[in-house]
Amino acid sequence: MSDVVERERGKKMLTAFFEKNQSDMSSRAYLYRDFPKFFTWNGRLGRWNRRTRKTQRGRIVSANPAEGEHYYLRLLLTHVRGPASFEDLRTVNGVQHTTFRKAALEMGLIDDDTNLS
């Protein structure tokens, strides 16, 4: 899991999304996938700015379930509003889970594998 987190920390847009949610409580109302509707990315400064025009371009990178924790991270980003850190994404009902998969399972976004046994 630490490899996934380190890889994601290198992605400035995601870490800047977390920073924006820490500093601007109004931005916490949005999902990561909806963020480009309300904010624009300034790559030179590495930060999100409030959108002033109506046009938008943006996308969230897709992930395949075979990618493991990367997939579960993306799944959580499409369902958790306003996380301020990776730890926020892994916290469900006040309990911080050790993996993104466990958090997604606890949220009911995926089924567990017991039905295969």
Mean pLDDT, rounded to whole units? 85
Series of secondary-structure elements, N-terminal to C-terminal: HHHEEHHEEH
- Given helix and strand content, the structural type is alpha+beta
Q: What portion of the residues fall into strands of 2 or more residues?
A: 5-15%
Question: What is Rg?
Answer: 15 Å
Number of strands: 4
Domain unit count: 1
Major pleated sheet: 2 strands, antiparallel
Task: Provide the low-confidence segments as ranges.
Answer: none
Roughly how many Å apart are the termini? Answer: 25 Å
- Fraction in helix: 25-40%
Annotation field: number of helices: 6
The gross shape turns out to be globular
Q: How are the strands ordered across the major sheet?
A: 1-2
